[in-house]
Sequence to fold (585 residues):
Amino acid sequence: MKMTQQFGRTLREAPADADIASHQLLIRAGYIRRLASGIYAWLPLGQRVLSKVADIVRAEMDASGGQEITLPIAQPLELWARTGRDQTYGPLMFRMEDRKGAGFCLSPTAEEAITAVVAGESLSYRDLPVNLYQINWKYRDELRPRFGLLRAREFLMKDAYSFHVDNDDLSVTYQKMFSAYCRIFDQCSLTYRAVEAQAGEIGGEVNHEFMAAAVVGEDDFVWCRKCDYAANIEAAQRQSVPNSKTQEKVSDPEIVNTPGLTSIDDVAAHLDVGPSDLLKCIAFDIDGDLGLAVIPGDREVNEYALIQALAPRSVRLFDDEDFVAHPDVFKGYLGPDFSGASIVVADSAVAEGTSWITGANAVNQHRLNVCVGRDFLVSKWIDLAVAANGDPCPRCGEPLSVDRGIEIGHVFQLGTKYSEALEANYVDESGTPQPMVMGCYGIGVSRIVSAVVEEHHDENGICWPAALAPYDVHLVVLPGRAKTPEQIALSEEVERAGEELYRVMTEAGISVLFDDRDVSPGVKFADADLLGMPVRLTLGAKGFARGVVERLDRATGEERELALADDILSVALTELRLAILAGAA
Fold:
């Protein structure tokens, strides 16, 4: 492709709303353009990258036994009502009505649609397992779209769904999909971890997220450098640690004044102690009653662990409206002995025989020397605190690390949640209908593009891995500013040689972006760095006179010269391809 014919311009400045590297660079380089908040057009360069990601995904899905289909983007709301997810998705779902008043939604995901399709096929146990996938657009009305493609309202996703006679059969396909995902992300040159995670609205007990490590990631994940343990921060566990605060004798409680001090840090500073010497008491609603979650002051409550520990009862943390409705519950001054609490759940680090500083259940007051077991009782002990750097790994005991990540894939063992709701049954050997056991496997195809740029860029622009680059080579021809007849003749020779080199490389199967524009060398080099093809070839008047073309590896900055034959057409195409692309993978 010649740049004089290429649609899409580079920009010197990033838009004001682009606050992460991938968003800035994809806009500046002319890969995408914003049409509305969270909605982007893919220009030719961006479309080539998106298609390459999709091709990698498609090849691995096909090789793993998947069969490609296409499901409607517009889905009947009636299907969602049957599973109850029309309510749980709430305003996140784009909704509409047809002219007859029937409700539809723009697909945020496709569990209901695929289950309804499979249910209509009247399958028997002989027809299973089956694994169906699509690469299609999804829509979610995010309240605050941000970070470009990472939190968009329209995004390209590969979603696959498998159907089985039992959990053992599901486990086989689940492992195949897990392995296929690893191969996909390896080919995309992403640094990633597969982590245990919460299933969220989709459901299922067994699931794994694939997290691409990134400073701008929206999710924290915990992992062990010693063993293979990794988990989403919500699902992460840690080994219980013996509490070092245990004392043989604890003094009697003592009230201290803490006027206007409601935060742990402020109280700790006022009393000249560390946050870990205080107890944090978090109020929560449990089936309409008040509960307390108690953890050391330097930790945060893991809401999901609390919910799981108290299931099937309904649990949610207090918000400002709850405190208004309960004026006797003093926010910032709540203690674990509050008489109105129906249940007290404490982290395992809050051990019997330890003393703490807590709220005194009175405004502007805290208490010293509050002892677990003497001054308050715990109804239930659980690992309640969010895992932190240095906590012991639950498997091997080595220190855990906490990093930020971008979710690029998620696999689930769904069970029969959808098949039961939508009557997707198979007929077993005895002729009896049985609900199909389902698996679900999603990859954010458009999100991968952004994740790759986050990992592979520098201060000058994008550094595409060879497998995803829109073109293999960026050819820059610099004929020079000719004034004398000799210079004019050399300039014309360089231009002809550039055209020939472009043609020969294309015939050799090398995809080339040819900068044939009449602009300065500085502009050409800046755009080449910004666009990020793996290899840049520069053919200038000086190099041509010496019979060489300069090769630059975009990622490493390594430079070397390649010899030009007297007649470019005489260069063996295989040799040319190897010389140009060597080291670009």
Notes: The radius of gyration is 30 Å. The chain has three domains: 21-68+108-237+402-454, 254-382, 471-581. Confidence is low (pLDDT under 50) at residues 567-573. The CA atoms of residues 188 and 396 lie 31 Å apart.
